[in-house]
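User: My collaborator sent over this chain with a note saying "see what the structure looks like." That's all I know about it. Can you take a look?
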Amino acid sequence: MRMLVLGAGLQGSACAFDLLQHPDVTEVRLADREFSALPAFLTPYRTDPRLVLLPLDARDHAAARQAMHGVAAVMCALPYYFNLEMTRAALECGVHFCDLGGNTGIVNEQKALDAQAKAKGVTVIPDCGLAPGMVNILAQLGISRCDTTESVKIFVGGLPQAPEGPLKYQIVYSLEGVLDYYTTLSWIVRDGKRMEVKALSEVEPVHFDTPVGELEAFHTAGGLSTMAQRYEGQIPSMEYKTLRYPGHAHIMEAVRELGLLDLAPIDVKGQKVSPRDVAIAAMGPKLKKPNGRDLVALRVVVRGVKNGKPITHTWELVDRYDEAKGITAMERTTGFSLAITGLLQVAGVVAPAGVHTPDEAVPGERYIAELAKRGIIIKELVA
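Assistant: Without extra context I'll predict from the sequence alone. Here is the result:
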């Protein structure tokens, strides 16, 4: 089968790598504007005829549609604002499509294309990374195992194994995306009603086994995807929080409240500049750790009732940088998740044709088994 990966950044490259490990994949088209910074783990495949590096500007919609012809599925690892147009292109070409998502408004626009996807006989699955993505599939699995569900709590974070500096953080994906999550209201469900809360709020401690230790959790946007609106009035409490080392949220909240993350340009010595652009330019180099080793910590807790008795399903993951292959934990949990979704779409084991989020479409047990094949081990506890 031929597969197309849009975007040759960190997650797109990891997605392509994972697809190349699959014996039934005969070609992986990795498309981007240029390829000067391909990660080292793809170097052995530069001479492999199955890996086709395809120059493509996603703003050229005709070229994007041309790249999609003849493939079984498209996996989009471009910035979220490309997702809607790339979905439309995939539907025109009649191919399966999934993306990393992260913007619930765009996901709702994609879901409006459900009839077109059904007419083409293909599936569209937005939000297929780590969070949203993996965590939503696990949450849905817990919900499906309860007769009634009382609460869903999701915690996840990408962290340095050796924290340093005031933020105790290193860039594991787009800093622009991180700051967007820190400045956007977060949807939750409380007392059965959907509501918005401020990002970085309601900080609470969350403990993991050594050497991770104690982390802090706080609200950020995007992680629940459409689950908050899907389960409003059905589940009393549902929320998603980001994990960081203690003290991070307090500093970033101060930075935000001082206006340093605002998007609107301000006058600086006669020049119009966006404070957030300045923040990214100033902080970015200091938060890039080329030799830093990362980890991903995740916990999903679903509490409910089964056969008249209280029950709690907990899933936990701590994944670390792959020293042998040079692949980060964030690339493994996000890029590999995108690849798994595309492969399951082609295999026909997800929901029927249409537009579905991962929690609506992807079978949890099969998904966990696919992660385990890649050494990403999710532990489950039932109490």
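A starting point for your reply to your collaborator: The chain has two domains: 2-129+330-363, 134-329.
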